[in-house]
Structure to design on (1232 residues):
């Protein structure tokens, strides 16, 4: 009985954590280039709506033609749409902040407003724009994404705990691992970190600062877009709700970046921990007490409080390796005197 | 044997807004030689070299590398042309290790990795006798270690042309000699080396030829063996050598500011000023000489109340100011103006108007909750008129003024408050000769009004003719306080590098140097 | 060195910093950016609805100003957004990145709602309102003070800290909504004191289409005038601009930078808290997460685009509210959803942000 609750809790934490792990990894990559992108919620929105629209039009076309949608194509269409839309958000951000040197915070916030507007507009109007086909649902795509490994049902608790997720959940972990290796071990990763730390030095070393900033931001935003994809196809099982959840998750992803002290490997356990903390209010009976509905929100504060504590602690300890990239949030202009 | 040309500049011009930094410069840098680029601060040496390293792009003119015309659009281009530059402000990533900093950038060697790089760095260190730990983080390194790392970096990448921007400014004598040995080795290996400096002894010591810039213009090139420090100075500053700065004689007054046993730490927690004693009388200019980073900045900040002191006393007219706030110290009549390298960092708010900057130290006077802009405007108008500040209006942001005018505004404001002690660091940094003389005149005028002045300067010639006494610092310690009339540039130079220590030589004297006979401090309190 | 041949060309495009620009020129550039953005927005609307963009803008104007009541609601919403921007301006001018207005509005709103619920029908109206003003401003100020304390003490990053404070405030709001739920099970507080109107901002005049809106608009206009002169002419304002421009210089001038930062954040948070009060007591008469409704973020953009000039902020916030109202009109006219306004807002902001580049830099093309 108890063990079932624990497993359920963990499963919902993984679903929750996967969304923000994508967002967090994308933002880490972006911030490593010195760009503080507060547009992550917006790019996640854009990724989400693009995957929904892509899958929707594909499934609709299949339905008109009278054929069953191909699961692989479903996955491919939604995946590419999400990544491309996220990267497009990153491109807008990069153009404004890197090329036109606009203020990063303001541009990021604008991107969030824009992305949220775009997503909720099309999320609400897709149905009408497509000629009123009824409730939007992309069940075929959602099913394809949510296909689990066979062990999920046969291996009992272990199967449910570890194998009961769609492939994107594992993909997120893979992204975090690959990114950690990229940043720590590869030459390009070293160059990227130099750009975020000290662009003038990177520039003098012959690194194309603009190119690195653009690429890191666009790929980072593309990855964040996958968070939106996971939210649409798995978390809400292929529908659209204008309830602002993505935005909440997006800001949590930004918070998680601080929590991980800019290290992707920490994002893996950090995001699940955030998920556990976020859903804790539903599982307090595991600790022998139940919450009244009004005290639930107090528990929902936990991830944010944890992040604030990490933020405060790292600023007190001032360990060099745990600080944000030194040039985070600042523009770079070579001829600045 | 005729040496082949590595880099040739033809009529290169660069402007920043309305400021002409370089005008029609022609320069020839040859393989297997060391070329000194000599000029006063602000003469455009660094700007010129930054165009070779790809930081700036020239407005007009041609650059030839190894005989072919090139255009260096970015540091990457410079890198591909094997031009390496060691900037005055090191281009290092603090949280990286030495090895990581070295391999930064786009290497053409695909097999390169941290391990092979570490091995090669060790190899280079062995060859030249450097002491660099490839795995040490840069933020744990000393200044000279950082510079060594910069040189290793350039050697690692196999530069053919090496440019060093004021490399000795932060080095001790021994470190400088070691650096010069390395440079001579590199010269033997056929590399072309440019060293930017304004220290004549070094120029004469290390270089084969000297090219001189003055106010952004190319003056000429001479062979070092045909040059003397006098001939070079003449070329550097123009015909009118800075020896006729007036030194009005003023009657001796009681000590105004007395510093006893002062010890200060810098931001990194190292001792910046080490047990220093000195005093300033009214009507006297005390010069402070020393290589960059020997504690001048910390000393200024401490006297102005901006930096906590570790130990010692600062007595102003018999009253201890060491625990006072900056505001209280200002009210005592002590004015500090520090001109940092970017000129605007401390003392002025760059985006605010001249009017607003006038009010910086007086805005809080009076009970009214409002700022008295009218007063600020009047003061601004007065300074603009008195000191000939070139500006469109009193409401122009200070950032848009040229360097000399910025300094006039700063110094003008400080003087108008009628201080009795002026502490001024590098007041003529980056100014042309005329503006510099104007500043000297202002200081002399103040001296004649019985103000005590602490003048932290760079140019020894100027200090010798302007100051009454000169105190020399080396690594935070006083090497000696000498009468400007009884000393020479050579002596000062040796003291700056720590080669002579007059304090040690004179410990047997009756009078302890730096402590006035007619001190305001009663010996009773002193213990 | 084999590729030297290709390198003899000047870069196609170079960027050079401008020396400065006349005020009318820079506002002209921003105006052009706005115009281009409106054209893009029109194209966007056209592709979606295939309607004449001009008639769409006409329909937007109808939505925002079509009737007396609509016009006054537009003014009231402008006032609330403007109020938040006024609160943010001093913080941003000081280069303190207070993106926590969202939270500061909410705690101000919570304090106001609490007063309405507990005192609204007991105490005399003037006393209730006075307590509401004090507690809401106090709550907002506290919310602004906390990140400032950590910033001054340990240099904790305020951008991220204030962001976190927003979410704590949102959950706090949810907590109180559940606590004050009315009727039970509705998951909302509902209109507080609907009959007695205890704790509601008083209406001015008798015209029901105008009277409820006069007081909120007047309060904010007064605040606008105050903030304009506070930033421009007072000693406090002077200190804020010095700290924002160069902290070293501020220390040098003998300013107590910590004190200035703390004081400014108290004011900044306090005014944002007041915005919560105006919205709860003067407009929606209830408490929910919608009391802030993203205004904390939008207001940053208002303050930034207006270059912290309080009077310019009036027009920027009016423009943004106009878009919002107009877009919901389009939405209902053409059966779309009103999020279109967010997209248009985004497009306009992108263009105006981008236009700053042309004010600060100059482009030099390769000479032929």
């Amino acid at each position: 009985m108890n063990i079932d609750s624990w497993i359920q809790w963990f499963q919902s934490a993984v679903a929750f954590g996967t969304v923000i792990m994508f967002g967090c990894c994308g933002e880490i990559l972006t911030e490593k280039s010195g760009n503080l992108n507060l547009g992550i919620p917006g790019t996640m929105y854009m990724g989400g709506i693009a995957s929904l629209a892509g899958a929707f039009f594909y499934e609709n076309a299949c339905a008109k033609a009278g054929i069953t949608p191909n699961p692989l194509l479903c996955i491919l269409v939604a995946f590419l749409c999400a990544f491309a839309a996220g990267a497009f958000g990153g491109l807008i951000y990069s153009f404004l902040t890197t090329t036109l040197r606009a203020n990063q915070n303001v541009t990021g916030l604008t991107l969030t407003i824009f992305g949220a507007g775009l997503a909720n507009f099309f999320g609400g109007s897709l149905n009408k724009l497509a000629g009123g086909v009824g409730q939007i649902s992309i069940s075929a795509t959602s099913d394809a994404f949510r296909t689990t490994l066979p062990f999920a049902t046969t291996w009992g608790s272990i199967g449910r705990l570890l194998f009961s997720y769609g492939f994107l959940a594992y993909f997120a972990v893979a992204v975090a691992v690959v990114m950690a290796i990229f940043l720590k071990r590869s030459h390009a990763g070293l160059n990227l970190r130099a750009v975020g730390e000290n662009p003038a030095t990177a520039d003098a070393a012959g690194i194309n600062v603009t190119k690195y900033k653009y690429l890191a931001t666009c790929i980072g935003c593309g990855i964040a877009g996958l968070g939106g994809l996971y939210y649409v196809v798995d978390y809400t099982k292929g529908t659209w709700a204008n309830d602002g959840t993505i935005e909440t998750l997006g800001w949590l992803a930004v918070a998680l970046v601080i929590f991980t002290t800019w290290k992707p490997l920490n994002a893996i356990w950090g995001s699940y921990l955030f998920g556990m903390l976020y859903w804790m209010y539903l599982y307090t009976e595991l600790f022998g007490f139940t919450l009244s509905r009004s005290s639930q929100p107090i528990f929902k504060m936990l991830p944010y409080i944890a992040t604030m504590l990490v933020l405060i602690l790292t600023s007190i300890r001032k360990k060099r390796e745990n600080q944000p990239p030194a040039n985070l949030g600042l523009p770079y202009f070579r001829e600045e005197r | 044997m005729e040496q082949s040309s590595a880099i040739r500049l033809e009529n290169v011009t660069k402007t920043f807004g309305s400021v002409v930094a370089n005008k029609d410069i022609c320069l020839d840098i040859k393989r297997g030689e060391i070329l000194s680029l000599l000029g006063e601060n602000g003469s455009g040496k660094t700007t010129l070299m930054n165009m070779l390293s790809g930081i700036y792009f020239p407005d007009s003119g041609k650059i030839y590398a190894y005989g072919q015309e090139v255009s260096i659009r970015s540091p990457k281009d410079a890198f591909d042309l094997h031009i390496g530059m060691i900037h005055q402000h090191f281009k290092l990533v603090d949280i990286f290790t030495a090895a990581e900093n070295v391999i930064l950038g786009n290497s053409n060697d695909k097999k390169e990795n941290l391990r092979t790089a570490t091995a090669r760095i060790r190899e280079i260190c062995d060859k030249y006798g450097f002491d660099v730990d490839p795995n040490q983080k840069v933020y744990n390194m000393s200044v000279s270690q950082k510079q060594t790392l910069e040189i290793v970096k350039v050697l690692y990448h196999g530069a053919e042309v090496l440019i060093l921007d004021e490399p000795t400014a932060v080095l001790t004598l021994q470190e400088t000699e070691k650096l010069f040995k390395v440079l001579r080795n590199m010269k033997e290996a056929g590399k072309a080396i440019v060293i930017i400096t304004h220290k004549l002894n070094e120029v004469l010591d290390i270089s084969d030829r000297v090219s001189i810039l003055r106010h952004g213009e190319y003056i000429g090139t001479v062979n070092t063996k045909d040059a003397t420090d006098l001939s070079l100075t003449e070329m550097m500053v123009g015909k009118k050598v800075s020896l006729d700065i007036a030194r009005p004689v003023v009657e001796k007054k009681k000590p105004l500011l007395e510093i006893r046993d002062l010890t200060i730490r810098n931001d990194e927690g190292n001792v910046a000023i080490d047990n220093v004693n000195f005093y300033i009388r009214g009507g006297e200019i005390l010069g402070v000489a020393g290589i960059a980073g020997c504690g001048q900045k910390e000393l200024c900040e401490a006297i102005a109340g901006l930096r906590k002191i570790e130990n010692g006393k600062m007595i102003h007219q018999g009253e201890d100011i060491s625990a006072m706030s900056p505001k209280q110290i200002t009210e005592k009549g002590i004015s500090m103006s520090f001109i940092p390298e970017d000129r605007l960092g401390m003392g002025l708010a760059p985006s605010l108007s001249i009017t607003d900057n006038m009010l910086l130290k007086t805005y809080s006077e009076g009970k009214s909750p409002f700022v008295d802009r009218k007063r600020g405007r009047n003061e601004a108008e007065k300074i603009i008129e008195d000191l000939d500040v070139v500006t469109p209006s009193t409401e122009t942001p200070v950032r848009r003024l040229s360097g000399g005018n910025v300094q006039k505004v700063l110094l003008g404001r400080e003087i108008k408050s009628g201080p009795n002690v002026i502490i001024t660091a590098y007041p003529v940094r980056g100014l042309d000769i005329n503006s510099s003389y104007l500043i000297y005149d202002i200081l002399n005028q103040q001296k004649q009004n019985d103000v005590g002045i602490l003048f932290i300067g760079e140019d020894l010639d100027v200090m010798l003719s302007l100051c009454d006494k000169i105190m020399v610092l080396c690594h935070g310690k006083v090497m000696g306080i000498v009468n400007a009339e009884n000393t020479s540039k050579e002596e000062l130079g040796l003291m700056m590098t720590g080669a002579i220590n007059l304090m040690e030589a004179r410990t047997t004297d009756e009078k302890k140097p730096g402590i006035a006979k007619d001190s305001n401090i009663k010996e009773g309190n002193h213990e | 060195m084999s590729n030297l041949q290709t390198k003899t060309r000047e870069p196609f495009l170079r960027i050079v910093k401008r020396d400065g620009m006349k005020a009318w020129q820079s506002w002209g550039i921003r105006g052009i950016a706005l115009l281009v953005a409106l054209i893009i927005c029109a194209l966007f609307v056209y592709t979606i609805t295939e309607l004449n963009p001009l008639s769409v803008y006409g329909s937007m104007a109808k939505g925002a100003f079509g009737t007396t009541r609509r016009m006054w609601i537009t003014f009231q919403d402008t006032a609330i957004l403007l109020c938040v921007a006024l609160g943010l301006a001093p913080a941003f001018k000081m280069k303190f990145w207070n993106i926590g207005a969202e939270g500061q509005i909410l705690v101000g709103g919570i304090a106001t709602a609490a007063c309405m619920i507990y005192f609204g029908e007991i105490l005399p109206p003037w006393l209730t309102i006075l307590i509401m003003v004090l507690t809401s401003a106090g709550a907002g100020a506290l919310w602004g003070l906390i990140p400032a304390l950590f910033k001054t003490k340990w240099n904790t990053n305020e951008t991220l800290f204030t962001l976190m404070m927003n979410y704590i405030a949102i959950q706090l709001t949810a907590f109180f909504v559940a606590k004050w739920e009315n009727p039970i099970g509705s998951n909302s507080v509902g209109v507080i004191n609907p009959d007695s109107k205890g704790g509601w901002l008083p209406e001015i005049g008798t015209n029901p289409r105008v009277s409820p809106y006069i007081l909120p608009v007047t309060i904010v206009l007064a605040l606008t005038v105050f903030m304009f002169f506070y930033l421009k002419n007072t000693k406090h304002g002077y200190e804020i601009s010095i700290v924002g421009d160069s902290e070293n210089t501020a220390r040098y001038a003998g300013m107590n930078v910590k004190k200035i930062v703390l004081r400014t954040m108290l004011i900044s948070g306090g005014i944002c808290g007041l915005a919560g009060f105006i919205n709860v007591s003067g407009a929606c008469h209830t408490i929910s997460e919608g009391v802030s409704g993203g205004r904390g973020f939008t207001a940053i953009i208002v303050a930034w685009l207006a270059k912290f000039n309080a009077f310019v902020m009036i027009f920027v916030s009016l423009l943004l509210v106009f878009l919002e109202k107009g877009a919901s009109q389009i939405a209902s006219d053409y059966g779309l959803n009103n999020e279109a306004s967010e997209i248009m807002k985004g497009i306009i902001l992108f263009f105006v942000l981008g236009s700053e580049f042309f004010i600060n830099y100059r482009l030099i093309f390769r000479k032929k």
